[in-house]
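Ticket reopened. Same input as before:
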Amino acid sequence: MFKQVLIGVVCGSAILTIGILIGHFGITKSGDSAPSWVEDVSKDVDENLIQEFLSQVDNVNIQENLRELTKVPHMATTPGDEQTVQFMLKRWQDPETGLDRAWREEYKVYLSFPDPNKPNKVTVVDPSGSVLHTAREKEKPYYAEQEDAAVVQPFAAYSPPGNPKGKLVYANQGKLSDYERLNQTVDLRGTIAITRYGGVGRADKAINAEPYGIIGVLVYTDPLDINDGLLSDTNETYPHSWYLPPSGVERGSFKTQFGDMLTPYLAAKEETYRIPETDIKGLPPIPIQPIGFEDAYILISELDGAAAPNDWQGGFNCTYNYGAPGFKPTSRFKDSNVSLDIFNSAKTLNSSNVMGVIRGSVEPDRYVIYGNHRDSWVHGAIDPSSGTSVMLEITRVLGRLVKQGKWRPRRSIIFGSWGAEEFGLIGSTEYTEEYFTKLSERAVAYINVDIAVFANATLRASGMPSMQNVIFKAAKQVSAPGQGSTNVYENWKRYFNRTSPTHGLIPRLGYLTGAGSDYAAFIHYLGIASMDMSYTYDRSKTNARIYPAYHTAYDTFDYASKFIDPGFVSHQAVARTAGNILLRLADSLVLPLNCSDYAESLEKYLKTAVDLYQEPLQAKKISMEPLKRAVASFRKASESLDELIRSSDLANETPLKVRKINDQLMLVDRAFLNPLAFKDKYGFRHTIWASSNAGTSTFPGLADAFADAESSGLSSDWDHVHYHLSVVSQAIEGAASMLTDVI
Amino acid sequence: MFKQVLIGVVCGSAILTIGILIGHFGITKSGDSAPSWVEDVSKDVDENLIQEFLSQVDNVNIQENLRELTKVPHMATTPGDEQTVQFMLKRWQDPETGLDRAWREEYKVYLSFPDPNKPNKVTVVDPSGSVLHTAREKEKPYYAEQEDAAVVQPFAAYSPPGNPKGKLVYANQGKLSDYERLNQTVDLRGTIAITRYGGVGRADKAINAEPYGIIGVLVYTDPLDINDGLLSDTNETYPHSWYLPPSGVERGSFKTQFGDMLTPYLAAKEETYRIPETDIKGLPPIPIQPIGFEDAYILISELDGAAAPNDWQGGFNCTYNYGAPGFKPTSRFKDSNVSLDIFNSAKTLNSSNVMGVIRGSVEPDRYVIYGNHRDSWVHGAIDPSSGTSVMLEITRVLGRLVKQGKWRPRRSIIFGSWGAEEFGLIGSTEYTEEYFTKLSERAVAYINVDIAVFANATLRASGMPSMQNVIFKAAKQVSAPGQGSTNVYENWKRYFNRTSPTHGLIPRLGYLTGAGSDYAAFIHYLGIASMDMSYTYDRSKTNARIYPAYHTAYDTFDYASKFIDPGFVSHQAVARTAGNILLRLADSLVLPLNCSDYAESLEKYLKTAVDLYQEPLQAKKISMEPLKRAVASFRKASESLDELIRSSDLANETPLKVRKINDQLMLVDRAFLNPLAFKDKYGFRHTIWASSNAGTSTFPGLADAFADAESSGLSSDWDHVHYHLSVVSQAIEGAASMLTDVI
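Engineering reply: fixed in the latest deploy. New output:
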């Protein structure tokens, strides 16, 4: 009996266990089983995937991308440009490593070109009309690249055509103060000014000159500013080093606004309304032409007058004279004029963006955007193809993961290969104008990597302070090329750093206050958190204002691979860092944007503003208290939000709670926008990061208005200071209100 | 053995079953049990709750709300206004029927008042200086209400002070064309014009007059326009009927822009920058004063000249003469002048909004906003207290459900009791300026119920076409007062209807193109889907341009309860309909906004535009194809979205998919905004619904630009037509792009 009972109990237990197992695992609960999407919506970024991405980013692939992209010159809208369009499409539509979808978007935009049949000329002409000297029309060839027929003659895009002829004067950098000073020593009417690159924007050198009666401007790159003083191409400059050969000329866009000039605030489609060309603002009013320092030396060394001030002297082995127009009486150019014959003309042509997307799995209606322009002035190995090569390697790795079914981002990723950036950020700007609302409502962030590698010393990055944390996190996971076990973050901190009240000694993230690349429309016009990064110089080793072959016919694959980044390891480090940031923005459950870091920057701006303006404003009965209160509100709101994120178990709460927080983080920069605050600055709407002329690192509208009021003393200008104080205070209060508990 | 086996099998089966049951129900699955929030996030609107709401809305409560709200005059910023602030706060903070939270928000705004110690005067003065007639200073009292010391003297808010004196002329409605015509018959310099209300905005009567040298303006309500011709207070007008007594005077705001005039596009906080008063635009340049038709008759009946045109004649038993300034030679006023002594002055005072919220359970960061102003000119029983009484009844019913724990909306509901609307929609506008980004990003819709009941015949509603469906649905569930079993929808269709290509015969939903009430800043400035509704007249029974006691001292509880809505059943119908719409917007899983109905309106606008403009534009080489393509894109996108909603099982999909669709629906009106398109129209940014002067029911920027170009013939004006065509085409394409699949 005992045995039978024992058997019964054992069998019974076994059957019960089987039953329990069947009941638990074998039968789906009808009412409360978790829907399949519950796990998906709470998934966070996968650190293993990040590691896989980092390991797959390949330097040789980047090198080969660059080789392909730089085969021919690809200035915007030329056949070479079309070749790169096709190349991008092919890569992004590749069935094994491509994106979900890729396509082209065209805009018909206002460009400016020299006449291939009538090249621009710069000559020295004596009183009898004999030409004593003619500046080089094209750069000196060292390799086949420079001899490519598609190399465009150096020119100043948007310079008007014309044939000014007059006595030459040296005008330093063509700043307003330079012409003012020069004007005190000599009557400038009817003269031609020769200026160095630097100090002010390209177009400003002509815009500033015109009121003094100057009729034409030359611009060149001084060896002091670019070559650490080196001059000779027999052994010093490219092809012997990265330095600029004497005949190298920086091309560029000579205009002060970004985007297509004929269709302000509208996408430049075929039938879009275009303003009359005569209504365009911010173009050079007089002809201007860039030349090489070889020719500049010939002109400057013969100039009459007294020695110009010390800070006007450059790198030539001669005294830079000023004060008398024209050449020395002892010169072979004595009594001669300098003549500019400029045949540029404007053309309205179709320029293409190439777009590619990876569709997000959980939040397809949230976009992380990554972009760079595709067009160059000549072969553009560094500018912009280093960035494009990096972008192509990132898309190859991610595309393969998608095509293999191994990964799909939480949010959608949009890649943009912008057209006509060199003519003034045109492709990216038209894109933001066409998709204004869609991007305003959905874009989480924009990552810009234009020139990926200026030099191979260190990372440099600029962006919203809210992005600091994710940039640091990514940089810590990437090893610094050539630095042993040091990572990109630690290496960066060695070169650029600051002491944060919160974080102590950290790398210095720059501010995106200008319009130097395609991030401009994203941050300034749309208020989308943006960043820009590259590898760059060791400033203790060079004073070059930019890499010396910039915008010249020497910016080639040969140059890049020999002198900028042999082995392409800095490219690789940038691809890894930028891709890591991209992945974190796309995949993190909670967006990796930190508003307390934003508060720190606002507090820094506030301190500067109070130090500089509070006393004089009190005298005008204008109170800075609203601004102080606003910054304090923002600080408080951002810390509450941080605390909410820290204290919540967001992976196990409704996905709408995460979305609410993410929307707060995403939209904080939108709150800083004011479409009416900067009426004279095209496309600038961001009240914190708009460009400023005042040269003070604080709220730009306030700084500019204060500078104006202080200089004019007009009560209407002091009113304008008060206006900007209200604008920025209310913008910051609005942002704080976005971050505060929602109702 | 068999028995043993049988027992074994039975026991085994029983144990197995028990095991299965334990396993299935007794043990929580670790990995895949549904989190508690899964059910909440997919909940749709509860029809039982709607029925409960409808049954609880009580007409007597509304009546008592009105009685309380109209105890004293409550013009903005007066002690009576403060009394209503306290009343709203008390009701919304009631522990049993109040909201989650209620508070006050103050703005310091620019207002205009007469001087209580020096009343404005209108007199007839003979050449010797004797006063032959003085217009009434205050309306004739019939009850105690009219004798309340807080009844403000009739005045034209924002009229400048001044003492113009001159010959009187009759100028019809003070339209531009009226003055033009009058100017052909008489030299208007130095005259005083008397005008009827109607035809143009109040301020325009003075703005249009000034260029002709007119120095002062009177305005009155003609019995023809308001009283169906009735005149006598012995038996015809109030207190015998709803008609305006002879001494009744419509007060009003005489300015053309909305919002605080000193702080354009900024919230009017204590320390906000204020523009100089001299920079204010859109105010009367010369003194203007409203009078009763009793006094107007005395003046007009004595006027010299010939009979004015037929359409200038009004309801008086006399000929309205024009053509000679001043009075008839046979009149006792012969050779006399009319003198205006206006002592209005501007004051910058604190005005309050009272805000209340019910926090949303699932999507607290989505707002459905319901509002009405609180301030009146005098007791304001109909304008605005009928609307406020309705709002208070809605908040009582919803507040109680919340406090009882029976209900909490999916989305947050914000109630706004706006201040200083009568002075130009000031409280609501400042609110939108202060919370610009927050509201732009989160507001689903705005419901405005200002005057809830003009008369008791039928519902009338205006709003975004996307809201048509939810308004219809709600109106069908409410029975029409006094119409047996007919519902509000069917009754409405009898009075106002149209034939829709999609829906056949339906009630006609109006467009919100003006700035007549507090919806203006929500739709025009912020692009938030908005609607406005009320019960109104049977137009076959009266021609009154508005309910006759409008803005007079007769708009009292007595008037409203006797002559506008005895029994308050129309108020009840409005409360039920508006509350039903509110509940559906707040609780529906998928927002009840329909973009195909929007497409229908765009197609109607397009047809009108093509009919009127295509030929003349072709002659100017301006193509309308981009506009046609844009409307077609919008139609296609809206139908795809409809189809997606129809074909998806959204209750069982990730809540982020519903959110994505809801964001598309919510944000479509934002895409129509352009902050630069209407530079001369303050606060108007919506390219579809902005106000228009052209009088054509089509895209407003296009219509106005076309009218200007046609009249001037200037090529720059034709350019402007092309500009507006591009603006509206790209706005519609942008909206279509928002509705299209997101990536």
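The mean pLDDT of chain A is 96. Chain A touches chain B through 86 residues (CB under 8 Å). Please confirm and we'll close it.
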